[in-house]
Amino acid sequence: PVYLDNNATTALDPTVLQTMMPWLTNNYGNAASNSHSFGWEAQRAVEQARMSIAHAINAASPSDIIFTSGATEANNLALNGLQLPPGRSHIITPMIEHRSVLACCVRLAAQGTPITYLRPQSDGIVSLNELNNALRPETGLVSVMAANNETGTLQKIEEIGALCRDRGILFHTDATQAFGKIALDVQRMNISLAAFSAHKIYGPKGVGALYVNTADERLRLSPQIVGGGQEHGLRSGTLNVPGIVGFGRAAEIAMINLPSELVRLSGLRNRLKQALFDTVPNISINGHPHECLPGVLNIAFSGVDASSLLLELPDIALSSASACSSKHQTPSHVLQAMGASVAQIQASVRISIGRFNNEKDIVWAGGRLIDAVSLLRSMAPIPQK
Ligand code: PLP
């Protein structure tokens, strides 16, 4: 089987597992135990990982990194935890955000927070003009994801950061899909808060982080999980030392490989895209054709039911909606917001290529995909143009 669902989750890199192993076995100390070497060693390992994450995004200080159980929790801490000053409670976010952001917004709205949901352009990009027009004197936070999980489309994070800087607005970005794949610089991009997850970058599941620009005094977060006061009181609970160590190592590896993987994965994606466009009629790309994550291709095969297509290809891991939302049997809110018809959404498949895929995988999967599409189309009651 070939795994092409790397936006849902990634395989644990064997090097990462190796780095984690001592912390899963002999070095079982609690990072908060400060009276013996078991605790000190665990704490040192956690701080090393914190430095690696901070370094990867050019954070001013390692203490800007708060470890969480993943990006869902990081987004919850950012959005539910942020104490916006009176008169600045308005939040702007696009309709294409991950559900962990949108669900927070729905809850905040129910509590009286004014929220504006921006519709993206049909290519999935949030227009700066639209964002500008949505700003109000009481806008306190803009939350825009760096890269979309379904389409891979990249947002103009640096420009949005600059706009927020000019207007004195805080800026949160869900950088879960972008981290480790494209360059991120929280200082240059004027990012106040950012969410990350280890399992999207060949690290373990169940660990992530929230970047908090602690130098910004306007940023007041109230913890969502209270208890022993770990992570500066922002996230209580015994630290997941093996997970955090693995996350740190995964981030280091991702940063070392970032430039070469950007080229290699884009090459594989373009090759697959070309093969599909050369042989399969009536297909189209969902999302921006170039401004996107290197390994992601979201394609609508007109007239083909994506779930039937996936059933035809049980040995290829693909996704017909985002893994996180496939439980919701509703058509993708992302493609819907971009203006896609229900028929187009039902015909769409996400292919996400990753570190452990090679050219052979792509050629083989491409061939299988082409055959399956033509088979399903030949069985369709209405002949395709
Ligand atoms: N945000 C985005 C853009 C994602 O793709 C995901 C992945 O499912 C998440 C947030 C949630 O991350 P986690 O699985 O770490 O909670």
TrEMBL record:
Organism: Pantoea phytobeneficialis
Keywords carried by this UniProt record: 2Fe-2S, Iron, Iron-sulfur, Metal-binding, Plasmid, Pyridoxal phosphate, Transferase
InterPro entries with a match to the protein in the record: Aminotrans_V_dom, Cysteine_dSase, PyrdxlP-dep_Trfase, PyrdxlP-dep_Trfase_major, PyrdxlP-dep_Trfase_small
EC numbers: 2.8.1.7
Broad enzyme group: transferase
Aminotransferase class V domain segment(s): 2-362
Protein family (similarity comment): Belongs to the class-V pyridoxal-phosphate-dependent aminotransferase family. NifS/IscS subfamily.
Ribosomal protein found in the keyword field: no
Catalytic activity line of the entry: (sulfur carrier)-H + L-cysteine = (sulfur carrier)-SH + L-alanine
A GO molecular-function annotation: metal ion binding
Cofactor: pyridoxal 5'-phosphate
The organism's taxonomic lineage, starting at the top: Bacteria, Pseudomonadati, Pseudomonadota, Gammaproteobacteria, Enterobacterales
Domain of life: Bacteria
SUPFAM superfamilies, per the entry: PLP-dependent transferases
Protein name according to UniProt: cysteine desulfurase
Pfam families to which the protein is assigned, alphabetical: Aminotran_5
